[in-house]
Please model this.
Amino acid sequence: MAYGNILVDQHDGVAVITLNRPKVLNALNQATMGELAAALDAAEADDTVRCVVLAGGERAFAAGADVNEFASATPAEMLTGYRFEQWERVREFSKPIIAAVRGFALGGGCELAMACDMIIAGEGAKFGQPEINIGIIPGAGGTQRLTRAVGKARAMELILTGRPFSASEAQAIGLVTRVVPDEAVLDEAKALANQIASKPPVAVRMAKDAILKAFDTTIEGGLDYERKAFYLLFATEDRTEGIRAFLEKRAPDWKGR
Model:
């Protein structure tokens, strides 16, 4: 499929999707999000893709949503016309997604990074939810994901002031996985993706699903969900191969089934 706002590259089980609107610092309009959703659909259907890296440019991962699209919108127009289901496609994607963040990740850009499973950030990256400064609030998950990641008190301060915060602060409060030199961000994200892609795919998907379930249920419900997933993996060929390879002291040959 030909894309106008993103680039897609695939190698060794890892698909790299790059936001590509550099003139507007990768502002997230609906066309871009639609293409991202389509690329994720393709990656979901491709059994050779085992992990995805979502990247931006050197100056910005994404500087925010494209305000021009809703500057004069009415509530009814936003309700009927603004397609938040495109954003939900990131959350619903069953394979791991790693955000590779350089430069600005503000507003919708911060929300998009948080929708991913892990974030590799450059030392010069800037995160933030500045929507309060234009009279609105985050609308693509910022109030929910930031609170779950850093806690109520810190999320209140960041969202109610709209102040940007550095990659080092983001790491200190638990929002990002790793901070590396700016020029190493994409390579580091790819290395992590390759490491994950080398693991048994079914177990990886079920582990991701069980981790996310921790945000949706009680500890009792989460433990029950984890246990059932654990039992179910004993029906896979990869479980048989993994244990056999361990006992035979050799590298496993994962089949993804």
Remarks:
- The longest strand covers residues 6-11.
- DSSP finds eleven helices and ten strands in the chain.
